[in-house]
Amino acid sequence: GEALEVNREVNCVTDFIHGCEDQLQKLKKQKEKGLLYGIPISIKDHIDCKGHISSGGMVKFLDQVKEEDSVIVHVLKHQGGIPFVKTNIPQTMINYDCSNLIFGQTLNPLNHQKSPGGSSGGEGALIAGGGSILGIGSDVAGSIRLPSSFCGLCGLKPTGNRIRYIPASVLFSHPAMEAAGSMLGPMARDVDSLALCMKALLCQEMFQLDPTVPPIPFNEQVRLRGAPMSPSAHQQS
């Protein structure tokens, strides 16, 4: 409901992920409760979800319905998370604004005269507007960090190959994109939520599904020891 309200205001959602209610009912019957049990999670447009498109803001991909969940969506579900919406991006995603000819312009919920940043701008707008508490974006040159900064959120671009994006489409599998090191990462309102998400993602299921990811669990001790980052730097990191 809140996601719908925020979307009406700032146009940040591109699709609602069907089956999320069924998934919640299924989770309730499971004995094992994952680290993200029952948490609704928003997903950036270009990350594959079964039965949905990954448009990249381009008309040429509108008829390509994905047959499988991407690795990260699979792992989020494995940990009890519930992907529930896909969020807007700029066309081709190589842009620091958030607009395309299919879904239109996303606004910054803190100031409708401003951009939410990009390319994970739909994520930034939805979370900052109160329509999601945790989202998955991606970052090559600031695509998580910029919208997090523009919208007053916390975001993390993980170390290279820590949480890889395995692209299915020609656009995103271009050698230049691979060389630039596109990483998937969490966006939320506080650092603790980012840490919980990273801890949940860096699990055995992830390491088995993507053998190129180093099988190193999240190190809580390193985080608790304190990094040389101030809280303001955390918001942009």
Automatic annotation (TrEMBL):
Domain Amidase: 5-215
Keywords on record: Hydrolase
Annotated coiled-coil segments of the chain: none
GO molecular function: amidase activity; fatty acid amide hydrolase activity
Any one Gene Ontology BP term: fatty acid catabolic process
Membership in a protein family: Belongs to the amidase family.
Protein name: VDHAP protein
The species this protein was found in: Sterrhoptilus dennistouni
This protein's encoding gene: Vdhap
